[in-house]
Specification:
Length: 92
């Protein structure tokens, strides 16, 4: 501490420099956290995207299975109708 400066000035300078140092430290911490978050996001998002595409494909498969099952049912019903019509014509 300087003996030439009043104590009040010395204290305000010390507090000011501490505040500046704290602000700079906070900025560097924020930068590091953002950088780390980006790295994590890069690692996580491709996995989620792959899972989402697999889920979409699975959904398409299940809908394809459903439509195939419906087609089989319709074909069965049509066959039954045709058979009953043929029997009715034969009975006339």
């Amino acid at each position: 501490m300087d003996d030439d400066k009043p104590i009040l000035e010395q204290a305000t300078e010390a507090i000011g420099s501490a505040a500046m140092a704290t602000a700079e430290a906070a900025k560097t911490v924020v930068k590091k956290v953002r950088k780390a978050a980006r790295k994590v996001a890069k690692r996580v998002t491709p996995k989620k995207a792959v899972k989402a595409s697999k889920a979409k494909k699975a959904g398409k498969k299940s809908s394809a299975k459903k439509s195939a099952g419906k087609a089989v049912k319709k074909a069965g019903k049509k066959a039954v109708k045709k058979a009953t019509r043929k029997k009715k014509k034969a009975n006339r």
